[in-house]
Design brief:
Elements (H helix, E strand, L loop, with lengths): L4 E9 L3 E4 H12 L6 H4 L2 H4 L4 E4 L12 H26 L9 E6 L8 H4 L1 H4 L6 E6 L5 H15 L5 E8 L11 H9 L2 E10 L5 E10 L8 E5 L2 E5 L4 H18 L10 E4 L4 H10 L8 H10 L6 H12 L4 E8 L3 E9 L2
Parallel strand pairs: 4-5, 4-6, 11-12
Antiparallel strand pairs: 1-7, 1-8, 2-3, 6-7, 8-13, 9-10, 12-13
Helix pairs in contact: 9-10, 11-12
Length: 350
Amino acid sequence: MSQSVKLVSIGTAVPPYAIAQQDVAYAAHRAFSSRYADFDRLAKVFESSGIRRRYAVRPLDWYFKTPGWPDRNEAFIDGAGALFVSAAEKALQDAGLSAADVDTIVTVTSTGIATPSLEAQISATIGFRADAERVPVFGLGCAGGVSGFSIASRLAASRPGTVVLLVAVETCTLAFRIDKLTKANIVATALFGDGAAACVLRATDDGIAEVEMSGQHTWPNTLDIMGWSVDPEGLGVIFDRAIPPFAADNIAPAMSTILGRSGLTSGDVDRFACHPGGAKVIDALESALQLGQGSLNHERDVLSDYGNMSSPTALFVLDRLIESGLPNRTMLTAMGPGFTLSGVSLKAAA
């Protein structure tokens, strides 16, 4: 009988600069209010976002120096590399492993460019073996942590006993743009933070939870919902549609389709662990999935403490859920550019 893939451990990390939401709101007012006529109306998002604090790879004043693309990407390689090492070492230590035990590294990011990719950049620092396989994954945005988890679990299943390390790392704040006078840019300034999460997956007898199934659903004609624009100054966020209403209208049938491929229904899920894109997104998810108001408590807490970190955020939620005690079946979910819903079902270890 073949062994199922298990989540063995999880580790999280944030960068050194903690920034209170009220300080970001003040800084945004200083940067935009005199140049953007609708700023005062949009500024309400800093209060309604559900965010108390975020973390950044650079101090707040750095963003007012209007750094160009080379400076932003240098900060990505430096900041994301440090986050990668910190989260990975925590996950490996918790699993009783070292970096030299890792056979495959899946690196998920969408907030900067590194060639060679991040796991190669930090290989000597952390101590990966020369024959460890590297699987960099780019462009999945907020869905990347869940989609990357799915990819890593299938790689672990294909080679039972091998150690697969997933690292989702993002430096979203490096896309804060003082030069872009758009609603999307101001909303992004109110929402996003930096962080990383790492998971060890392995086809083994022991672990926190068994990976039961996974799936994705991409809606047609939705490329403009979320993504990046690229110009000489760097990456610029695209939010061309209201995501909460879209989630409220579309996530339930898509989730039913994903679950149905494995003979499951939403009623078989004990806990949905969702990527908390924002306070309104969490409200929309509770409504669409017919959950009780306030059910997504860990999601709200993670959003409050860290903001939206893109791909690792759902894994921060999973970490909180593990600490409080996993129910029998958890559906880890996130939405991201594409526009795509990604899901992974986890069954708590006996």
